[in-house]
Design goal:
2 domains; about 200 residues; about 25% strand
Length: about 200
């Protein structure tokens, strides 16, 4: 595929996304932009990114801001969505039902399973080996760590972090800006944002 991808964020996450983009043949070239770092591999900051897109130096963008800054991830998306074209990466080893909807800016890492009528909103990232069952909605700018399992008819609102090996039972709702720690089992709705841990999940702070 002869397309150039810009990644906003040149840290470890951005480099992981670049690796998948190139090795899984989604893009032929990757360039980096970063508002906080400079270096030979970084083409500039957000302002340079917009200018370079208008000058057709790249085709699409994906945001490489990680789970510690999900609010910033969402804000960057909203500020750029009408100024640049967002891409999407779904790794070739993942299985996605034809009825599922994965919006722009999303990255689906290897060996994920996305069942029928799932909706994954813009700018969300699913790490290795996540399973999302039927009729579940994952909100915008969420970050799912490896091996998260979410049952059917769930609703995860925007800017949530779901930790590694978390399990969420069917028909659960999780409010925006919630953090679920590693190995947590969620069996009741979470209506108060904060940090949750344990089996079953308990509010920590």
């Amino acid at each position: 595929m002869n397309k150039v991808l810009a990644i906003l964020g040149a840290g470890e996450l951005g480099k992981q996304i670049a690796n998948f983009a190139l090795k899984d043949n989604h893009y032929s070239k990757v360039c980096f932009y970063d508002d906080f770092n400079v270096g030979e591999e970084i083409n500039g900051n957000t302002s340079d990114l917009i200018s370079d897109f208008n000058n057709k130096l790249f085709d699409e963008i994906i945001i490489g801001i990680g789970y510690n800054h999900l609010k910033a991830r969402e804000e960057k998306y909203l500020s750029l969505k009408n100024k640049v074209k967002f891409g999407k990466i779904i790794h070739s080893t993942s299985w996605v039902d034809e009825s599922a909807i994965i919006e722009e800016g999303c990255v689906i890492y290897p060996k994920c399973v996305i069942d029928k009528k799932v909706i994954i909103k813009h700018n969300t990232l699913l790490n290795l080996n996540c399973t999302i069952a039927h009729d579940t909605v994952i909100g915008s700018s969420c970050f799912l760590a490896p091996s998260v399992s979410i049952a059917g008819f769930c609703s995860i609102e925007r800017e949530c972090f779901i930790g590694i090996n978390t399990s969420i039972k069917e028909r659960i709702g999780i409010v925006s800006q919630t953090t679920i720690g590693a190995g947590t089992v969620v069996v009741k709705n979470i209506i108060k944002k904060g940090l949750y841990l344990g089996n079953p999940a308990k509010f920590i702070k």
